[in-house]
Amino acid sequence: MILDLFSFFKTTIPPNDFERSVFRLVTRQIADKKPVAEELQGIENLRKIPAAETKKRQKLAAELYLLLERNIAEEQVRNRIAPETLREKIWNRCYPESAEGNFALMFIPHYERQITMFERFTDVVLARARENMGEKEYAEYFELLSADPLFKDLIKNKTISWKQLARQTKKFTPPVRRDIIQKLLKRAFEILAERITNLVGDLRAEILFRDVYHAYHDEIDFIDDSTKILLLVPDNFLPDERIGLMGKAELQEQLRLKNQALETTLAEVQGEKVKLSELSRDELENKVQERTGQLVTALQNVQAAQAKLEQAKAKDDAFLENIGDGLIAIDGMWNIILWNKAATEISGWTQEEVMGKSLKSYIKFVKENEDAADDGFIEKAFAGDTKETSHLETGLLKKDGSKLAVAASTSPIALEEGKISSIILVFRDITPERELQKTREEFVSLATHELRTPVAAIKGYVKLILSGTVGELHLRQRKYLEQVDRANERLLTLVNAMLDTSRIELGTLAVNPAPTVLSEISESVLADLAPRIAEKKQILMKNYNPNVPSMNVDPSLVHAIFQNLLSNAVKYTGDDGKVTVSIEPKDADVLITVADTGLGVPAAQQSKIFEKLFRADNARAKIVEGTGLGLYLVKSILDQTGGKIWFTSEEDKGSTFYVTMPLAGMAKREGLKGLS
Fold first, then answer.
1. Rounded Cα distance, 86 and 84, in Å
2. Distance between the two ends of the chain, CA-based, in angstroms?
3. Buried b vs exposed e over 96-135: b needs ≥16 C-beta within 10 Å?
4. φ, ψ for residue 253 (rounded to 5)?
């Protein structure tokens, strides 16, 4: 039996189960149920309230209990039970210390109840702070707490360990435990308030504590000492709410100070009256007229300045409301402080729904091809990583759950000392542009696909003629046909590159991984380039690390990567130059390096090197052949398969391109076709 009781005592009791247990016990104490028939019906109705509406249910349960408690204590003719006796019965039989919800707090002994309220209030404050501060600032706050001797061994996983706190204080009596925990949590809130004040000012910090206090207090206002949670709030916050905490002596002192201030003001007024009484009637009238004139002039100046301010504000408001782009301003805690009409039209959220609340709760930027968060550009703006406006194209989850393609930009606003105080976020719907782009890409895909067939046919017939199968050619005929063959080969290369590019952009490119040895792909490409390398007398250096394993990648995609990088290296490196290729493991990736001693890329144009159809000026001037699609294609393949590419280059000295691919390989993806 003792073991059963212990097991039950350690079990958490759901709120509705505890309510049933309490009211079952209470109704047994009622001798005459007619006077409380309405309250008893209320208990039946209470059970119909959904479990999801726990807060509403708990408050109603408390109200019903207090009515029944008063009836049992004061109005019953016989078997009256004092409130404290009834609550002691509930404490002994219903185990409120193991119950969830606020209703159970009514039946827990005084000091233990306050400790429980302190802990729950702290959890609510920290949850709101985490939402408003962001993960980085929140983590730094707990680092500060951990460094404070008061919190030794109490901080775990960015929260306060209540179990550890209970173990550390269990040897003390309840009043002492309450005082220790109050002091510790107040210190935690003082550090939190200081942190938030540094971010967005003391007013916003006080608003956070006020909002959380009133929200939580509203849930437990049926408890006599519910205002005790104010003992945790920093002393300079919520002065009006603290009046209920003052004892008689404190209230008398406050009243004395206010009376003293009032007496001082009255004395000053009396002094002015004495001075005025010493003036003659004419002097007094002149004084009044003079003062009245000054007041009228000052009032007119104030009204004129106010009118100008209102006019300027009206212009600004009209501008912000009528621009086509969504415009949002957020403070250092991500709370929304400005929201225009276009933001409502694009996102579906109204200004009334979002003002003063965290941006993260309403505006969710996500990657276009998945629902992973994509708000790092806002984090960077707050971190001061960029002092200028940043732009990107991303996805936006609307209020109705649908996803919209948007172009977004951030502009940080800094204080005089350089600290970022707020961010202006501008975004617009780019669905029409995307649809137009898709139509254009589909047309290019169709056109290049249709071009490929006749170009391939021309190539076949030219090769047939050059082979002499249809008759001997004299020298001039062969020369002209060889020129046609080379031109046709360039055209076919361009058509294939455009077709591959359109498949990637339209998302129809298939990825079919298979066990692949990268060095074998590299050797295959170099074998095709061998005649050109020999013709230009270039030195070829190869370094294949034997520790690179066979990888599960798409061979055609990897071939395209090596083909473009190595052919560029050979093409843009002059006679007697050097081309180097290496493959080696690097952490969880494989690193491919292709270096040359060729033309290099001008520093001013290096940021454009991976753009579609871009060719550097020095490359176009010296080598006519080239589509400007090779590096764009390589980067697109790597972006879609988890790889990366970057480079270093110096004009007239050469370039080095670096490619990483995960050793885990590529994920399979269904599509219409692979690369050409």
1. 5
2. 78
3. bbebebbbbbbbbeebebbbbbbebbbeebbebbbbbbbe
4. -65, -45
H/E run at residue 411: strand 403-414
Say whether 31 sits in a helix, a strand or coil: coil
Measure the CA angle with vertex 304, ends 303 and 310; round to 5°.
85
Distance, CA of 13 to CA of 4 (rounded, Å)? 15
pLDDT tens digit sequence for 442-465: 666 666 666 767 877 887 888 888
Amino acid at 12: T
| Whole-number percent of the chain with pLDDT over 90 | 14
- What is the C-alpha separation between 660 and 518, in angstroms, rounded? 12
Strands 539-544 and 578-586, bridge-based pairing: parallel
- 510 alpha-carbon distance from chain centroid: 32
Q: Is the pLDDT confidence value at 21 over 70? A: yes
Rounded Cα–Cα distance for residues 547 and 542 (Å): 15
Spatial distance between the Cα atoms of 458 and 136, rounded to a whole number of angstroms: 62
In this predicted model, which residue has the larger pLDDT, 272 or 238?
A: 238
Q: From CA 254, how far away is CA 240, in angstroms rounded?
A: 12
The CA distance from 614 to 637, in Å, is: 17
How far apart (Å, rounded) are the C-alpha atoms in residues 504 and 484? Answer: 30
Q: Would you say residue 234 has pLDDT above 80?
A: yes
- Reported as half-sphere exposure (CB side, CA atoms, 13 A), residue 394 has a value of 23
Mean pLDDT of the chain: 80
Helix (H, G, I), strand (E, B) or coil at 213: helix
- Distance of alpha carbon 208 from alpha carbon 127, whole angstroms: 11
* Span 318-377, pLDDT tens digits: 666 667 788 888 887 888 888 888 889 889 999 889 888 888 888 888 876 667 777 778
Whole-angstrom distance, CA of residue 361 vs CA of residue 375: 12
Among candidate residues 561, 579, 562, the one with its CA nearest the CA of residue 570: 579
- Burial state string for 172-206 with b = 16 or more CB within 10 A and e = fewer than 16: eeeeebbbbbbebbbbbbebbbebbeebbeeebbb
Give dist(CA 633, CA 610) in Å, integer.
8
User: Do 572 and 533 form a contact (C-beta atoms < 8 A)?
Assistant: no
Distance (Å, rounded) from C-alpha 375 to C-alpha 314? 32
Q: Which of 5-19, 210-224, 405-419, 586-600 has the lowest mean pLDDT?
A: 5-19
**Per residue in 506-528, pLDDT tens?**
666 678 899 999 999 999 999 98
Distance separating alpha carbons of residues 414 and 420, to the nearest angstrom? 4
What mean pLDDT do residues 246-267 have? 60
**What is d(CA 618, CA 87) in angstroms, rounded to the nearest whole number?**
90
Give rounded-to-5 percent helix, strand, coil for the chain: 60, 15, 25
Handedness of CA 465, 467, 473, 476 (dihedral sign): positive
Contacting residues for 109 by C-beta, under 8 A, at least 6 apart: 91, 174
How long, in residues, is the chain? 676
Q: What is the DSSP string of 567-593?
A: HHHHHTS-TT-EEEEEEEEETTEEEEE
Count of CB atoms situated within 10 Å of the CB of 485: 16
**3 state DSSP class of 217:** helix
Compute the distance between CA of residue 193 and CA of residue 129 in angstroms, rounded to an integer: 10
Q: How far apart are CA 447 and CA 191, in angstroms?
A: 65
CB burial string 544-567: b at 16+ within 10 A, e below: beeebeebbbbbbbbbbbbbbbbb
CB distance 357 to 370 below 8 Å: no
Q: What is the chain's alpha carbon radius of gyration, rounded to the nearest angstrom?
A: 39
pLDDT, one tens digit per residue, over 114-137 is 888 888 899 989 888 888 777 888
